[in-house]
Amino acid sequence: MSRRSRAAVARSAGGDRTLTTVLGLVLVAASVLALLVGFGVFGSFRAQRPVIDPMIVEWASTHVTAARWIAIGIGVVLFLIGLWWTLRSLRPEPRPDVSLSELPGERLTVEHAAICDAVRHDAELIDGVSRARARLVGTPQKPALRLSLTLVEGTDVRDVWADLDGRVLARAREAFAVSALPTAVRLELDATSAPTPARVQ
Q: Which of 76, 155, 164, 178 can bridge 128 by disulfide, Cβ–Cβ 3.0-4.6 Å?
């Protein structure tokens, strides 16, 4: 599956994975360096020295107020970084509008809500589809589509897929003027059309 098509399936977590990997590598490198120093790879003198340099301890002892403010400042910075990371991970997924023309004086942009309504309406016209939901994700330059179709019991999924690809998605690709529109389709059975299970007494 290409990177572009992954946007249709689920929200990308590439940025979070990259930050986590970099942080993990930095911590691993620091741990390996500490072990090498402790085993005397860089000399026995360095291995016998305290973890915190005595000069730093002495300075902190004579400048208690300054050391306290430095520690508070570091804590605040780390807290803000963690808060930013959390908010970045929890922010709503963008729903891009699609630009169909960027020519001077001919700028044409279609809002994501209008696109989703049109796709949903087309999908609900397919025989066997009782309800449909559509959501546009990705970026304005590389949009992707998520479709959720509720099928009436007994519907032939192959017929639904043929109509979906041949009519609904074909019209969407034509509207976007693209040859491929990554789409994730979720199918579920309409609970109201399913037979009621018999009770066992």
A: 155
**Could you report the per-residue pLDDT of 128-181, keeping only the tens digit for each?**
888 898 888 877 777 788 888 888 888 888 888 888 888 888 888 877 767 777
Cβ atoms 98, 176 nearer than 8 A: yes
Residue 106 dihedral angles phi and psi, to the nearest 5°: -130, 30
Residue type at 135 in one-letter notation: R
Task: Write out the E strands in 46-154.
Answer: 98-101, 108-110, 129-138, 143-151
Neighbours of 1 (CB within 10 A): 8
**Which residues does 189 contact at the CB level (< 8 Å), separation at least 6?**
150, 151, 153
